[in-house]
Amino acid sequence: MSIATQKFNIVKIILSKSIFNENIINIILQYYWNILNGKKKIMLNWINIEKLDWAELSSNPNAIELLKENQDKIYWRGLCCNPNAINLLKERIKYENNLTREEYNNLDYYNKLPWSILSANPNAIDWSELSSNPNAIELLKQNQNHIDWTRLSCNPNAINLLKETQDKINLFRLSCNPNAIDLLKETQDKINLFRLSSDRLSSNPTIFEDESMPIMYNIDWTRLSSNPNAIHLIEQNQDEIDWTGLSCNPNAIHLLKDNQDKICWWKLSENPNAIDLLKERIEYENSLTTEELDEIHYKYKIDWYRLSKNPNAIDLLRERIEYENSLTTEELDEIHYKYKIDWESLSSNPNAIDLLKENKDKIKWDELSANPNAIDLLKENQDIIKNKLENQDKIKLFRSDLAIKLSSNPAIFEDEPMPII
């Protein structure tokens, strides 16, 4: 019984002894259930579990209840990076700590690490993956002999543990940890010795939010230019800007508008905040002849392949689809893939569901299966999904793309229904 159901039943008992009539109680209970956390996640009833991929399910954050009921199918390496699987991992550690070497060796290959013995009594837990799991800190504290300190150094929730064990920190990885600003200050003398860390520091999303953080002489301006939180530093050093990096920086639109001759348009095509700039550029490119457009280097024109991934470019993509639909097959085939809609990217675009419904014949179902906003569209076309899975079974694929992507989609699970009142 889930925590939500337990709480619901308690409130139900309390209300049954109240002065409220049955209708009022039902309204209260329905509202209470809607706001309750801790509901069990259950798989959508139209999905055939037999066709799913357990390796991907093991890392799906909404699959925990299913995994608890099918522990013999868990892919433990994948589970190690599942943020909601800590209790399952604790149980597994206890189980494996009681195994003899012979019993451990008899475990299925996919339930243990293939390359190393992690202790005198081997564990099948992938401690390297677990060390980067932000919800596994308490578990890691209790098993420090297994920690992968390189991976832990970039774990945003591991700062206190890292402060206690500074001799084991990997400064290269710590440099990109968004929560490590104070720790980086304490170790700045060492960081300056690690010139390789400059690219990590320069891409750290929080490194420049603290103005007391010393600016290092070896900044990687290519990385820094794409850092959305480093705008004040970029503005003060515009002669150092890498315009390719800046073109994908969502907070640099004002700089890009003032320097449109320096924009790298193929990078800008993915920038979610650049829609107005992109719209103007499309209008300009549409005014050119084919010969004039061909003369422009690919970096300096719209990349429709990349634009298809842009969640805010839906209106621009709709216009382009209408244009492409007006072409003959031969005319469309003559267009380079970078300069036409990429239906694989569009199928994974979370905001493109309406466009995909209008162009069902162009949907790439493997990619759509991983799109968390496409679950209703997938349900409406479950016959297509079932047929593709069956066909992939027939050609005996070890792991089919559609099964992998569908299994990784958190939206294939929903909240358990409200208990009967």
Structure description:
There is one protein chain. The chain has 421 residues and is mainly α. It has a domain at 1-39. 48% of the residues lie in helices and 1% in strands. It is built from 31 helices and 2 strands. A two-stranded antiparallel sheet has the order 1-2. Helix 1 runs antiparallel to helix 2 (22-35). The radius of gyration is 26 Å and the shape is globular. Residues 113-124 and 192-198 have low confidence and may be disordered.
Question: What is the fold's blueprint, element by element?
Answer:
Layout: H1 3-16, H2 22-35, E1 41-43, H3 54-57, H4 64-69, H5 76-79, H6 86-97, H7 101-105, H8 127-130, H9 137-141, H10 149-152, H11 159-164, H12 171-174, H13 181-186, H14 188-191, H15 198-203, H16 221-224, H17 231-236, H18 243-246, H19 253-258, H20 265-268, H21 275-286, H22 290-294, H23 304-307, H24 314-325, H25 329-333, H26 343-347, H27 353-358, H28 365-368, H29 375-380, H30 382-394, H31 401-408, E2 413-415
Antiparallel strand pairs: 1-2
Helix pairs in contact: 1-2
